[in-house]
Amino acid sequence: MSKKQDESELLSFLNAKGAYQPRKIGKSTDFTFLANLTGRPQVWMLDKHGEVSSFHELKDRVLQVYHSPSGKHTVLASDFEGNEKQQFFLTSDNGKTIEDLVISPEHFHQFGGWSPDESRITYASNRRNPGYFDIFTLNIETKEEVTVFESQTNCTPLTWTADGKRIIFTYAVSNIDNQLHILDIESGKTTPIGDVNIPARYHSVQLTKDNMSGYVVTDEGRDTLAIAKFELKKPDSLDFIYKSERWDIEEVKISVDEQYLAFSLNEGGSSQLGIYSLRKNTVTNIKDLPVGVYQSLQWLTDRELLVGVTSSTLPGDIWKVDIIDDKSERLTNIGVSPEVSHLWVEPELCHFSSFDGLEVPYFLYGKKSANQPVMLYIHGGPESQIRNEYNPVIQYLAAQGYAVAAPNVRGSMGYGREYVQLDDVRKRMDSVADVNYLVEDLVSTHQADRDRVGIMGRSYGGFMVLAAITHYPKVWSAAVDIVGISHFRTFLENTGPWRRRLREQEYGSLEHDSDFFEEIAPLNHTEKIQVPLLIFHGKNDTRVPVSEAEQLTKDLESQGKNVELIIFEDEGHQTEKLENHVLMNKKTVEFMDQWLDK
Q: How do residues 24-53 score in pLDDT, each as one tens digit?
């Protein structure tokens, strides 16, 4: 295959599109969804013929869509060149015209929902102080803005109660834990949901129309996330109604007639869709859906659900599920890529035993023969998880003859509370040791070529790459760091104030752990690096400042090491623009081809 043909095939992998985040419009069965069909994510819908049509196109990417209860109004959330500082825009004619609604470009905004009568929205913003998020309401007609709650941390409104008098909001406690509180708008009084004395996660709040009770996903007093019920009159007491001792509940959504709870269960990186009958207290598992990850559950009718589905061989599409007959229908076909989909491969779910006997899971793509070159792909977070989802770089590397291993090392989400805390603070390097043991497993169990092992990762995964090549320098042949952390001290000093406070719960604090930061910092061990290093970073990154890449590159260049830094001037923490996405992944594959010498 010629070089030109190689580039054409790579573009086919990278240009694969997906539809995600379905949002029902009012009481109709119409819905919008997001898709990157034009170079950046925008809002789309299906017309009466089932064809995709534009809802409205903004200048920059659309991050979220919020339809009012009747569907008359819609708020679109967008940022500027990847900086994640969401601004809100309003349309009241199904996207035909749009107006600025909440605009303060230097500040973050987090949407919290429409009031039941649709006259107001609520949101949080850090306008008063960069490190504090306060809660506001805004009348969409008069544009009157009212501060209804001031906080000393990061809080986000989630939903209004049915009487429109209260707002439920989440209050960040640590990098993973939060609290839920009910805010009385008139008095300013707050009441907690659940036991605030027990560290826990809470999300996916669903309230009943009678203003009496609600449901929430939480791990209060448990290892895994489960579904609990609470009463609004006594919300501190939770009654668990459905749980799995091994896996986390991901999302829950109450049906229109309030007879069912639809939920997704994360089983080792793939989803199971379940329907819990509130009347019978029984669970039915839906089988007629493709294996993959299910997101953004939306009830269309009393018996029909919208589900966003993605998998390793599906970039993303929207399905409709009949819960009574257990039948599904694919509504969009944006994830269809006939020119390249025949090359996509399903991963094998594997496990290895790490240095202390901990069983660590990983997905293995493209394993074909002995002595293959192998790439390790490390996820970010660290409280994230490699899922059974489409990744164009992994798929392309597998198609080119690489075996690709994507692990969920200790500290990853999806395996319970105990597992996610195994790398906290001074246990940080245990997760890096997991990566080293993964290589040993790939060599011994899957006959990977020990002399042709590459590693790449994004964000915290970028730190893992840098830590691996400095603390285990002889293992690797090439490395790619994307928006990674080179020193936790400088990262914490330069990241956003509100993010710093939460990140210190995971990484350690500047006050108490600076000695440990110095001990493990890749920036302090650059003389050990023996492999070529390719670095990417976004100039507008508000999470991991671009200075993390610049200081590392400068140090390596002063030593004459093989390093290349590419800064995207119009990107943030994510790489959204098509031309940048293509350049980054093309360079990555060419880089690995060069240094892994296939």
A: 999 999 999 999 998 789 999 998 788 999
Hey, what are 577's tokens?
A: 């623009």
Nearest CA-CA partner of 597 in 548, 545, 532: 532
- Does residue 429 come out as left (phi exceeding 0), alpha (psi in the -120 to 50 range) or beta? alpha
**Of the candidates 42, 44, 13, which has an alpha carbon nearest to the alpha carbon of residue 332?**
44
192: CB partners within 8 A, 6+ apart = 179, 180, 181, 182, 235, 236
Residues 498-527 have pLDDT tens digits of 677 767 767 777 788 888 889 888 999 999
pLDDT per position as a tens digit, 456-479: 999 999 999 999 999 999 999 999
pLDDT of the residue at 5:
41
- CATH superfamily for domain 341-593: Alpha/Beta hydrolase fold, catalytic domain (3.40.50.1820)
CA 70 from chain centre, in angstroms, equals: 29
Other Cβ atoms less than 10 A from the Cβ of 594: the count is: 12
- Taking residue 417's Cβ as centre, other Cβ atoms within 10 Å add up to 18
Q: How far apart are CA 151 and CA 555, in angstroms?
A: 40
Q: Residue 358 in contact with residue 367, Cβ under 8 Å?
A: no
The yes-or-no verdict on residue 6 having pLDDT over 70 is no
Which tokens is 131 given? Answer: 């490190």
Rounded to whole angstroms, the Cα distance separating 29 from 598 reads 52
Say which residues have a Cβ less than 8 Å from residue 286's Cβ, sequence separation at least 6: 273, 274, 275, 321, 323, 326, 328
pTM: predicted TM-score of the whole model, two decimal places:
0.89
CA dihedral of 348, 225, 254, 195, whole degrees rounded to 10: -170
Q: Please, are residues 147 and 124 in contact by the beta-carbon 8 Å criterion? A: no
CB crowding 300-319: b at 16 or more within 10 Å, else e: beebbbbbbbbbbbbbbbbb
Q: Is the dihedral of CA 221, 226, 229, 232 positive or negative?
A: positive
Q: Maximum CA pair distance of the chain?
A: 71
- Structure tokens, 438: 């993964």
In CATH, what number does 18-250 get? 2.120.10.30
Domain boundaries, the chain: 18-250, 251-336, 341-593
